[in-house]
Amino acid sequence: MAGPMGQDTVRLTAAQAMMRWLSVQMTEGGERFIEGCWAIFGHGNVAGIGEALHGIGEALPTWRGQNEQTMAHAAIAYAKQKRRRRAMAVTSSIGPGALNMVTAAALAHVNRLPVLLIPGDVFASRRPDPVLQQVEDFEDGTISANDCFRPVVRYFDRIARPEHLLTALPRAMQVMTDPAACGPVCLAFCQDVQAEAWDWPEAFFTPKVWRIRRPEPDPRELAEVAQALRAARRPVIVAGGGVLYSGAEAELLAFAEAHAIPVVETQAGKGALDWRVPLNFGSPGVTGSDCANRLCAEADLILGVGTRFQDFTTGSWTAFAHPGRRLVSINLAGYDAQKHGALPLVADAKVALERLSTALSGHRFADPDVASREAWFAATDAVTAAPQGEGPNHLPSDAQVIGAVQRHAGADTVVMCAAGTMPGALQILWRSAPNGYHMEYGFSCMGYEVAGALGIALAEPQREVICFVGDGSYMMANSELATAVMMEVPFTVVLTDNRGYGCINRLQQECGGAEFNNMYKDSNIEVQPAIDFVAHAASMGATAVKAADLAGLEAELAAARGRKGPSVIVIDTEALTGAGIGGAWWDVAVPAVGATPRLRAAREAYEASAARQRFD
User: Fold this and answer.
1) What is the model's pTM?
2) Which EC class, in a word (predicted)?
3) pLDDT for residue 81 is more than 60
4) Residues with Cβ < 8 Å from 432, sequence gap 6 or more?
């Protein structure tokens, strides 16, 4: 068919046009940028989007999830493991299905990760208003439940006419492939519009390659940062997730070695350097190593590379304690680069490190003292070692569970987690191979773990994926375990059961509070639960076992290698001990007025620590 100005056109529904267009948006490697679409259908997307996904077939595969939030988590984990070079779409119906994805959208937003969310929306025509599940605003007829996405996505659009897609889809892709603006996109798709036909220009469906930019630094900023580094005596590099997304691991190592600058890694940046690299001193801040925090306290210049300087990294701004210290931030996002008065270098991390190294040519600092690093690893050996005389009545700590998994892990192992005790303990204790660490700690979202493991395994099927999850997070969201069984996606879940929220229970006590409503034993319940996690996981089709002790855990980890589907290994742990070593202060406000001596003492300690915070 010929359209306006002689253009060739094709008549498609809006939903068919969307899926056809997404199927030809390519990476530089010749792959689809949107690998496929997770879908749970309801009346708001089954007729339009559902028909279009069925029609497009394997040109844009569809996978069925069990929960809108967790299938979005799987998509986000996939994008994170792919270093933002590829992503997935997720579609839901209107109302509760859409709102279930808002938490996942916030997770992607905080972590700067691409995901395309396509919730169904109300009728653009408004003929059947109010439709089933429609949220009505008494003062604004344009509002729907999907407006909840606005503060937690980087781009929001409502598709109320078919031709809106001509501008909305390219804008969505631009955001997801822009390293500075990268984040989630929500295209709220009115359900009647999904099914409307329109004559689309054939040229709209021409395959397009999306390139990830590598912005060069401004010469003036580069000169200023180089001058600041030359004037420093004891700098330290804080490597964040931007190092991994840029693919700048080799450049980071070369820069650090050329100028003898020690490196510490954030949760998002851990695994940028092999743990055995002599200049890798572990992690800084609240969940940091002793040797890293000592370096940070003494450093007169902090060089952040691809980090947001989150409060855990900075010890709530007490970790960088040198009275004359300067903060320098290499970041693609100007918003992040100038946080806390940092001297900014707005550029791609890989390019910036290369240019900065050239600007510092021949300049080398004094070699850092590696004795503290060696002492640190000796300390971690002690807390992660299996206890002597281990018996059936002795429950291991989380650190000892980490030690058992560490003894099993190989160069191809990726460990992952999101919330509870394990993220902090893993950052402190885990010895990561390159790119062997996947932590969602920007949002620290309970329930990410099982779904995230599925996404990682889909992104890198050749690697062994081990998911650490506590009983609390497992209870919140475990249903994508069934999806992994159905898809025969292998990963191993190490489920530590401490019978409650052990991490927050410890924090509650550290803040002067009584044990209350975190552990089952301290909750207002009549019957203490005896949850059979093995039976539960097995009921979804997973291979599930309970390890009696750490030796049993190691044996079951070995047995899980090579299975076609997911494995779940349950082990009882004690709840009183965290990582056992390392760490720094974290600003969690303690009540200024309290009845108990314990609470008053906690407040005094809080005020003393808060007095050390730096805001310059």
Assistant:
1) 0.97
2) hydrolase
3) yes
4) 270, 271, 274, 275, 415
Task: Find the farthest-apart pair of alpha carbons in the chain and give their distance in angstroms, rounded.
Answer: 84
Cβ atoms of 392 and 258 within 8 Å: the answer is no
Question: Distance (Å, rounded) from C-alpha 483 to C-alpha 486?
Answer: 5
Alpha-carbon span 313 to 316, nearest angstrom: 8
Return the number of other C-beta atoms located less than 10 Å from residue 104's C-beta. Answer: 29
Strands (E), 33-183: 34-39, 62-64, 87-92, 115-121, 155-159
Three-class secondary structure of residue 415 per DSSP: strand
Residues 194-215: what's their mean pLDDT?
Answer: 97
Q: How many CB atoms lie within 10 A of CB 148?
A: 17
Q: Residue 4 — φ and ψ, nearest 5°?
A: -55, 145
pLDDT at residue 84 tops 70: yes
The answer for residues whose C-beta is within 8 angstroms of residue 407's C-beta and 6 or more apart is 554
Structural domains of the chain ordered from first start: 4-209 (3.40.50.970), 219-369 (3.40.50.1220), 387-572 (3.40.50.970)
CB half-sphere exposure, 85, CA atoms < 13 A: 13
Beta-carbon count within 10 A of 593 CB: 7
Give the whole-angstrom CA distance, residue 325 versus residue 346. 20
Q: Give the span between the Cα atoms of 292 and 281, in whole angstroms.
A: 5
Q: Burial letters for 410-442: b for 16+ Cβ neighbours within 10 Å, e otherwise? A: eeebbbbbbbbbbbbbbbbbbbbbbbbbbbbbb
* pLDDT over 80 at 240, yes or no: yes
Task: Identify the CA nearest to 395 among candidates 546, 557, 558, 287.
Answer: 546
Task: Identify the pLDDT of residue 389.
Answer: 62
